[in-house]
Design a protein that fits this description.
Elements (H helix, E strand, L loop, with lengths): L4 E5 L3 H10 L5 E5 L25 H10 L3 H7 L3 E2 L4 E6 L2 E6 L5 E2 L2 H13 L4 E4 L2 E8 L6 E8 L7 E5 L2 E4 L7 H7 L8 E15 L10 E4 L9 E8 L2 E8 L9 H10 L3 H7 L3 E16 L12 E3 L14 H21 L5 H24 L6 E3 L7 H17 L3 H11 L11 H9 L5 H11 L5 H8 L11 H7 L1
Parallel strand pairs: 1-2, 1-11, 2-7, 4-13, 11-17
Antiparallel strand pairs: 3-6, 4-5, 8-9, 9-10, 12-15, 12-16, 12-18, 13-14, 14-15
């Protein structure tokens, strides 16, 4: 395995994390992006979703703190809002709960986060940033079995000069605009049809200037939408430099407005006094900005019988997640760790089909996030999933998760709600909630007994013990990597 140069296509979060990992193995790492890299925290044209909220989860914070020591402090130093000790009010159709952030954390904009990460990257001597260049084609060996480089087209000069750059490894991290499938088809490879999740999601986000003296009294507020009533969901929080943001979202084409008066009216229609009080007196900064996602896709490159060596795909180029759940940055961090482990193992014990094995390892981790996305989004009328195979356990998981949310909220059970959150933020395996004893105990909890009766009917449908029925219905996720509660305690 030659390690002279690696090229990353795409300078977003997945690309930056991949570059950081590869810099420990390759003599030179080049990040190529069609945008210029801003010198200050600014959104890039190639990231239309950047104005919408971006957050750490416990898992992404754990990984990124290891990759970029002192990251939280660096973000705070440049204006991010310190989150330790702040309150979050969580509202759902069953009630509300309040939590207090115990970890050293921060809230920020995507622009600030990328800019701070780029600062770390630019201080890494063997990483080079090459902006304002399109990658138009892949270079390959004569038999097309190996990718050997890229063809570049300049976006600065009038004549759009073309050039070539060779590399031992190409990583496509160019996101939703990836040309990986097109390139593979042009090279004669048969690419499986992707899974798709039609969601027709709409976001609208507005930012507000916080007057002097108000910041300390503002908490995070998150309001879950009701899939049966198709109501908007919303979230309010401070991000950075005395600026707060308010976001509304909904699925199946029920877009929140980007017209200022209607946007503010839709906030009031949520009927949350705490949110109305928080926004009172804040100064709007410009108009609300919208973002639309018609569908999500999950590629299955790992199923291809043949794959060109020297090429990998990561991030949204491999699988796009529903941004509502805040898992995209976390999955990118997990994929970077998987890449690091796979390359280290390949250098120590070289094996054929390294790229396909790495794609399979990436897919093992993608599966968890994708399954959780599908389980949640299919609760909404009009959302549709399509793929070669139906996903396992969706209906059971929907009923079970809904009962957990209802019971933990009504009983203010922070332990179970916290476990539910750690699973949905990819920290722990969903299997932590699907042990037979835990399922039986949680479904028996609650005064009416309806959940227990539903579970009994579900078991009777197959005439099999609960433990066996669960093992057949719920994916094992055994190939995915997860963190531990000990790591969570030590990272606080």
């Amino acid at each position: 395995m030659n390690t002279e140069r690696a090229i990353i296509i795409g300078g977003g979060i997945a690309g930056l994390l991949a570059a950081k990992v590869l810099s420990g193995f390759y003599g030179e790492v080049v990040i190529v992006d069609r945008d210029a890299f801003p010198r200050e925290p600014e959104n890039r044209p190639g990231t239309p979703q950047a104005y919408q909220p971006h957050r750490f989860t416990p898992r992404s914070r754990l990984i990124l703190n290891r990759m970029f020591p002192g990251l939280i402090d660096e973000l705070i130093r440049h204006g991010a809002h310190p989150a330790r000790g702040t309150k979050a009010h969580l509202h759902n159709p069953y009630g509300s709960m309040t939590t207090v952030e115990q970890s050293h954390d921060a809230t920020f904009s995507r622009a600030l986060f990328e800019w701070v990460i780029r600062g770390y990257i630019q201080r890494t001597t063997n990483i080079r940033l090459l902006g304002m260049n399109d990658v138009t084609h892949l270079q390959t060996s004569e038999d097309r079995s190996r990718v050997t480089g890229i063809v570049l087209r300049e976006r600065v000069s009038g004549d759009r000069k073309r050039s070539m750059m060779t590399a031992d490894l190409i990583v496509d991290a160019s996101g939703r605009f990836s040309k990986a499938v097109q390139w593979l088809n042009e090279l004669g490879y048969q690419v499986p049809r992707p899974e798709r999740l039609k969601i027709d999601l709409g976001y609208s986000t507005r930012r507000y200037r916080i007057p002097a003296g108000r910041k300390d009294e503002l908490d995070t507020i998150r309001i879950e939408g009701d899939p049966f009533a198709a109501t908007h969901a919303g979230a309010f929080s401070i991000i950075e430099n005395d600026v707060a943001e308010m976001v509304l979202w909904n699925l199946n084409g029920r877009y929140p407005s980007t017209e200022p008066a209607l946007f503010e009216q839709e906030i009031r229609q949520l009927g949350n006094p705490l949110l109305n009080d928080a926004l009172r007196g804040l100064e709007p900064i410009g108009q609300p900005r919208g973002f639309r996602v018609l569908e999500l896709s999950r590629q299955h490159f790992e199923q291809m019988p043949q794959w060109p060596s020297g090429l990998l795909v990561m991030g949204d180029a491999f699988c796009q997640l529903d941004p509502v759940y805040g898992q995209g940055m976390t999955l990118a961090a997990i994929e970077a760790e998987v890449l690091e482990e796979c390359i280290r193992r390949q250098l120590e014990q070289p094996r054929p089909r390294f790229e396909l094995e790495t794609l399979q390892r990436l897919q093992d981790n993608i599966e968890v996030a994708w399954w959780l996305n599908v389980v949640s989004d299919l609760r909404w009328r009009g959302v549709e999933h399509s793929g070669a195979q139906p996903l396992q356990g969706v209906t059971f998981a929907q009923n079970y998760f809904d009962h957990i949310l209802k019971w933990s909220t009504e009983n203010a059970n922070h332990e179970i709600l916290g476990l539910y959150w750690l699973i949905n933020s990819l920290f722990l395996s969903p299997q932590e909630l699907f042990h037979a004893d835990r399922v039986a105990d949680l479904m028996a909890a609650g005064g009416s007994g309806e959940a227990k009766q539903w579970l009994d009917r579900w078991i009777e449908e197959s005439d099999r013990p609960l433990v066996e029925r669960l093992s057949r219905a719920i994916p094992s996720f055994e190939g995915a990597a997860f963190a531990t509660l000990d790591q969570l305690m030590h990272s606080s």
